[in-house]
Every structure is written in C-alpha cells, then in structure tokens.
Specification:
The complex is a heterodimer of chains A (about 120) and B (about 350). With about 120 residues, chain A is of the alpha+beta class. Chain A contains 3 helices and 5 strands. The model of chain A has no long low-confidence stretch (mean pLDDT about 80). Chain B has a 3-stranded antiparallel beta sheet with strand order 1-2-3, with no helix packed on it. In chain B, strand 2 and strand 3 form a beta hairpin. Chain B is an alpha+beta fold. The chains are: A alpha+beta (about 120), B alpha+beta (about 350). At the A-B interface, helix 1 of A face helix 1, helix 4 and helix 5 of B.
Chain lengths: ~120, ~350
C-alpha cells in the first residue's frame, strides 16, 4: 500500500502528465502522417496512386483532369506516396483542422494542362 | 440450490470488445461456461480475392490494432517466402525493434486493464502514463501511434536514423525506471495479491493438453516462445522465454511484466546490432504455392496460411490467432470460480476479439 502512496505523492507534487489542450499544444513529430498533400503541378494523371490505394480512396479522371481523394477512406498508409513516379504526394506532419461540411472531406484538385513538347 | 444462466457480455465494462460468455451459475459459483463469438466479424480473410496481395498487407495490419505490426510482419514474411526473397538485415532488425515496441505497448495496455478490472483505477492511470512514452516512440519513428504501416513486402518502409535510435534508448530508460517503481504494487501489494493469487489456476499439464499459447502457457511453467525459432532477426539475438510456475492470474501478470523488460533488452541489442544498408528488397514476381508461417504475438503464437496461384490475388488466407487457441483454456478455467472473479480471470488471458473474428 505504501508503494502506491509514494507514487501518488510524487504525481501530486510533480508536473502534470497532461496538457491543457488547446491552450498548450505539442508540436507534431516531424515524421507524423497527419495529412496527405498533393501537388497538382507535377501530376501526369498516370493513375498509379489510385491503383495502389488499398481502400480505393483516390480517383483520377483523365478526361476532366481531376484528382480526388476521399479523406474518410484514406488510411494514411503511404502506398500512393511510394508508388508516385513524379513524387507529387507527401505526408504533412500537422493534422488538418476539423471540417464543417461533409463535402469538404473530399479533396479535389484540377491538374493544369501541360504544353506538348 | 438455485441454478441460473447469466450472460456476461457482449457489452460488459471489463471486456472492451464484444464477446459473450453464458455462465451457468449455482449460488454464485460458475458450473459451466459457453462462449459466443461473431459480433465483430468483418470478413477480412475473404478480401484476398478482391485485393492485390500487396494491398492485403494493409488489411493484415488492420486485423488487430494492438499487434498490427506483428500481423503485418507475419503476412509479409509469408509472401516473401513464396516470392523467394529475403529482406535486407537492416530491415529485419527494424522489424524486430518495431514488433517489440508493439509487444511493449500491448503488455502495458493489458497491465492497465488488468489493474482496472481489479478496481485499482490509480494504478491503471499510472500504467497508461508509462504506455504513452512507448506510443510516443512509435509515433516519432514511424509517424503513427498504433497502426504503424512500416512493413512492406521485401522489407520496411521507414528507416531509423541515429537520432531516432538514441531517442528510443532514452525513452526506454525512462520506461524501465517507471516500471521498476510500479513493481512493488503489482507484485507485493496486499489487495492485488488477494485479488489475483490462486485465481484461475491452469496447471502445466492441462495448459499443454488444451493447447494454450503465449504468456498463458509460459505462466503455467512451459518454456515455449515462437521467437526462439529464430525467424527474422530473432535468430541473431540470445534470449530465454520468461517462465513462471504459478499458473494463476498473478503468474500471468508477472510473465507479462517481465516480458516488458525482455522486450526492452531485445530492442536495445537490436539497435546496437543495426547494420547499414538497404531497407527493401524489390521484387516484381507474383506469389505461387502454399505456405504456413508462425510468429509470436504479444498474446502468443499466430499462424498464417496462404495459398497462391501466381496471379495478383491470393487464393486463400487463413489466420489462427492466439486468443482463439487460449479459449479452450478459458473454458476449462471458469467452472468452479466465483462469479466475481470471472471478469478478472477472463481478462488475464488477454482476449483480443478483433483478432479472433477477423
């Protein structure tokens, strides 16, 4: 009994184990997989990311030149990042803010037209 | 004498996952127990026919949150054997480090829940505080807290730099100190001993006959650990399975507590022996043939059976999880127990229903 009492006394006099979030927030770790960023500028619409995605969260439309990701389906495994031949995808360490509307849970990007060489 | 049938679960404060025990009770003493499963069946094994074998790695990781790294690793090992490739030594050692970190966080979670099942809330909080350090290491080195998604077919996805390795060593030192501090509470405390000693005794012979696995088997005095077969990088490291002889709840608690220190030793020696080089062996082949692979999970032996026909989809995936193997032992333990001890004894086997039902 005394051994637990010692631990409790130490906890009572030591610093807090928790933070007063959101007033005091911890910096995210550098390698955190909190969000996925997509750079439409370098995308060639090759659909590799969409084929590799285990949950089918990514949809690529070649005709309309759009790239779409369903945030709720994405499991942040990173298969698309490894597969992308142009390295357009990367993880973002900071988690995104909560969304107000459900529609915003889908990330759309229009890939710009490229001049033919 | 009044005989009544009491359903425990599927929603019960002690069982965190839905599974039901129908207890036939004669005046507060259990005379028969019948388990009922199927509440969280997700049909993950059947997904092999619709998902690519590489995508299935992500599914295998999600069979269970607590031992996801080991599920992923076992699946990858099976496919690697079918493909005839060997991951580089660095990748194998990194897999070992992350698997052992997973074992640590699983055992800490169990210790916390065990304390909570006894009604010892402050000890539960204390253990979860220690667990948070391990979770932070996982997040720092892999990017995720629970489902770390580092295993890929042919190796691992993330590398560990010298700074990360030092961070792990520093954090483990802190964890070891914190664990030493709670040792007297778990082992010597009067009320904890009253609640756990000589409760749910599984004799050595009975444990062997019923095919118990993992810490439950080791707590009954049988020295068996699949890691000793030397899969992955475990063959390079020297260790002995943690064995206790009591066979009761206290022995199972001690085995898991001591395994935490064993895991820390394995991680430290793994980090010391980390060789330089590649972390992935690439292969464009498709798996073909049949394979059976075993690994040691925090709860015991997990068996993966895979049959493939050379296409991108596997034909069959079958998993036998440690909780299922321990269920026969649980059904043997419950008759004769007081009703008040049933939740604690059931929890002492560390049931993982998500694994069992897949």
């Amino acid at each position: 009994m005394t051994s637990m009492l010692k631990i409790l006394l130490k906890n009572g006099t030591g610093r807090y184990a928790t933070r007063l979030y959101p007033a005091e927030a911890r910096e995210p770790f550098a390698k955190n997989r909190a969000d996925l960023s997509f750079d439409p500028g370098c995308c060639r619409l090759c659909k590799t990311c969409s084929r590799k995605c285990p949950t089918g969260a990514i949809e690529v439309d070649k005709e309309n030149r759009t790239w779409k990701r369903d945030v709720f389906s994405c499991v942040f495994c990173g298969d698309c990042i490894e597969a992308c031949p142009k390295s357009c995808l990367s993880f973002v360490a900071r988690p995104p803010l909560p969304q107000k509307h459900h529609q915003q849970a889908v990330v759309y990007a229009t890939v710009p037209e490229r001049s033919k060489k | 004498m009044t005989v009544s049938v009491i359903p425990v679960g599927p929603q019960h404060p002690v069982f965190l996952e839905p599974f039901q025990l129908k207890l036939v009770v004669e005046d507060e003493v259990v005379s028969e127990a019948l388990p009922r499963f199927g509440y969280v069946h997700r049909g993950l094994e059947a997904l092999v026919v619709s998902k690519d074998f590489r995508q299935m790695t992500r599914v295998a990781e999600r069979i269970c949150g607590i031992c996801s790294a080991i599920h992923g690793m076992t699946y990858c090992r099976a496919i690697e054997k079918l493909l005839g490739i060997t991951p580089p030594p660095r990748a194998q050692m990194l897999r070992l480090v992350w698997s052992e970190l997973h074992r640590m966080h699983s055992h800490l979670l169990w210790l916390g829940l065990f304390a909570e099942a006894m009604g010892f809330e402050s000890l539960f909080m204390q253990i979860f505080r220690i667990r948070e350090t391990v979770m932070d290491i996982l997040e720092q080195t892999t990017g995720n807290r629970v489902i770390i998604s580092v295993n890929v077919i042919g190796g691992v996805r993330r590398d560990l730099d010298a700074e990360g390795a030092d961070g792990i060593r520093r954090a483990l030192k802190k964890v070891a100190g914190d664990l030493e501090r709670i040792r007297p509470v778990l082992v010597d405390d009067y009320s904890v001993r009253k609640r756990t000693e000589e409760k749910g005794i599984l004799a050595k012979e009975r444990a062997y006959e019923l095919g118990a696995v993992g810490p439950v088997l080791r707590a009954s005095g049988i020295s068996q650990d699949i890691r000793r077969t030397g899969y992955g990088a475990y063959g390079e490291l020297d260790f002995e399975p943690v064995v206790e002889s009591g066979g009761d709840c206290q022995a199972r608690c001690k085995v898991r507590y001591r395994e935490l220190f064993q895991s820390m030793d394995l991680i430290r020696s793994g980090l010391d022996r980390l060789s330089d080089g590649e972390i992935q062996t690439k292969s464009k082949e498709k798996p073909e043939g049949e394979i059976l692979v075993r690994s040691e999970q925090p709860r015991g032996e997990v068996v993966y059976y895979i049959r493939a026909d050379g296409s991108k989809h596997l034909q069959r995936l079958r998993i036998r999880t440690p909780t299922f193997a321990n269920m026969a032992a649980l059904m043997d333990l419950l008759p004769g127990l007081d009703l008040a001890d049933v939740p604690l004894v059931t929890l002492s086997l560390d049931p993982c229903i998500a694994c069992t039902e897949r």
